[in-house]
Amino acid sequence: MSAPAEEIAHALSRLALYWRAAGWRAAGAQGLTPTQAEILSRLAADGPMRSGDLARQLGVSAPTLTDAVSTLAAKGLAGRQPDPLDRRAARVVLTPRGAETAALLPEMPEAIAPVLDGLADSERAGLLRGLTLVIRGLQEAGAIPVQRMCLTCRHFRPHAHEDAARPHHCAFVDAAFGDGALRLACADHEEAPEEERARHFARFAAVA
């Protein structure tokens, strides 16, 4: 590993430690574990989900998810209901009380927002681009689950425009956008075929 890569890895590890500690504090304030808090937040954002899909998105094992959902159900925060698309399957859903609790969970540690807001637009865009490449690389390696990000979406057209400020194109909204508007968790995401995802990644990574 090169010296710059080592420094980046060290920086990410320090951020992960801070984020994990902040997550424990925020979840604990609501009487939850971080995994339980993640489940509530994900269901609040995306709606009811099958247990398998929820486990994959959170990157946890099926038994871990089952235990967490059972605890949330005992607390009256979540439950299960038949999947309307497959009556043999079940979906995890929020209760009204669970939705209220999810609304109390912060999207990020309190100290992070002012730090990011203090960066220049170009710095935030560069940081988001770099993180997007790192996350997609880890997904390609099978180290983390595939998320609903631009680089895996069938609507994404990397470097489709000559405008350096807004080189990419989203076919879903038919609009150009720049690195600062890249999405890592888009509600309108539709996963592209594997070959198309590979082409997107290669083109995005090749053009700085």
TrEMBL record:
Residues 5-136 form the HTH marR-type domain. Pfam families: MarR. PROSITE patterns: HTH_MARR_2. One of its GO terms (molecular function) is DNA-binding transcription factor activity. GO terms for biological process: response to stress. InterPro entries: HTH_MarR-typ, MarR/SlyA-like, WH-like_DNA-bd_sf, WH_DNA-bd_sf. SUPFAM superfamilies: Winged helix' DNA-binding domain. PANTHER family: MARR FAMILY REGULATORY PROTEIN, TRANSCRIPTIONAL REGULATOR, MARR FAMILY. This is Transcriptional regulator SlyA. It comes from Pseudogemmobacter humi.
